[in-house]
Structure formats: structure tokens, C-alpha cells
């Protein structure tokens, strides 16, 4: 979605100068220009952008042209890329997104405001507004993942696999991350089960540009396994 000239005042405390927006990028040349333009517009060009890239198309060139830091990495899956991406910046607030133009970059000021309000992790809940653009099977899967995680944790969560979250960097650095396809669930569950201030906030979710990189069957099974493993590890740690 192209954003034109929307600009919100910086909330107190951390500003966009303290913010890094990070993503894994894998053959996203259709979407990356829009995503990076949106980030630039919303943050007035002040957020640092990190792309961990495994593409064979023009994605890394487009990222460079937009001033992003591009870390090259052989494609090894979502979590391997996103783990590298969240650990790269040295800014105190790190926001993840996908590079497929599904997530609302105009919400970056709200996420930063929640961090300034004391949140440790702010997680975009795509299911709250109905996620009409999400393929029906993904939606069902995501609802089941959230239920499974909620039962295992004893705390209700609504969207464990969302790609848009804000984190205090110190938490990303302190916890050891082990999951690949299930990394998004892990990034929500470990902080929550360790007592950090984790808040879900409703977000809009748009239709994906370009091809999906996730196989719904093998990917779904991997995510379910991650949820069970992470919940048990955190329970008994
Ligand atoms: N560097 C790198 N990035 C990856 C890899 N796999 C996925 N990504 C990126 O991670 C993000 C999430 O992948 P998606 O294909 O959007 O997965 P999804 O959001 O579960 O599925 P969709 O519903 O199709 O959006 C995208 O920005 C991808 O380009 C990988 O192996 N390496
Ligand atoms: Mg996506």
C-alpha cells in the first residue's frame, strides 16, 4: 500500500532515530520498493532499515537504492533470516515486518508509542479485524496456532505467527532463539512466558504482493512443533 505524506508526531522517549525496521527478503522485487518507501515516509527517513537477503532477483539492488543495510545470506528459511535481521541493528527498538506489502507501516508510530509506554514487545494481531485478505487456510491455521499456544502457556494470545512486532533490543539480545519457520511464535512466546510486558494490538493485513515463500503444509507442521517445543522448554526452564 503506498502511503502519501502521512506523518505522526514522534511520541516521547524513543524517536524514529532509535528505531530499526528489519526483515528477511527473498525474491520480493514486486513489493520491496513500496515497503521501503512506506517506511521512509512514515519515519521521515529516520529509521534504520535492515534486509537479510537471499534473493536471486533485483530485491537487494532495490534495497540498496533505498538506503537499506543489506546483509547477504544463503536462503535457509524465514527464521534463519529474521534471527540475523533482529540481531543486526544496534538501535534500542527493533520492528520486524515481512517484505511483501502485507503489513501496515503507517502503524510504526503506534508501535513505538507502546514501547515508550513501557511495553517490551508489541505484537500486531492480524486476526482481530478479520484478516479478509489472508488465504482461508492460513487464517484457520493461525487461529489454531494461537489456541494451541494459549492452552500451553495458560495465557490467551490471538496471533502467534504475525510478522509485525516491535521489541526492545535488549530482550532480543538476552534470549537464545532456536526456531526457523516457527521463529515468529517463539519471539512472542519466550518473552511472554518470562514475564515481559507483551501486548497484542490489532492491525490491518493486506493482500500479499508476489509469491509466498512458505509451504502451508510443511510450514504449518513446523510451526505447530515449534509452539509445543518452546512452551515446554519455557515451562521447565
Ligand atoms: N532471506 C530470506 N528471507 C526469507 C526466507 N523465507 C522467507 N523470507 C522472507 O520472510 C518474509 C516472510 O515470508 P512470506 O513468504 O511472506 O511468509 P508468510 O508471511 O508466512 O506467507 P504469505 O501469506 O505468503 O505472506 C518475506 O519477507 C520473505 O521474503 C529465506 O529463506 N531467506
Ligand atoms: Mg508474508
From TrEMBL:
Family annotation (InterPro entries): DPhHxTase, Glyco_trans_2-like, Glycosyltransferase_2, Nucleotide-diphossugar_trans
Alphabetic keyword roster: Transferase
Top-level taxon of origin: Archaea
Sample GO molecular function, one term: transferase activity
Any Pfam family hit: Glycos_transf_2
Residues in Glycosyltransferase 2-like domain copies: 21-175
Keyword Transferase attached: yes
Name under which the protein is recorded: Glycosyl transferase family 2
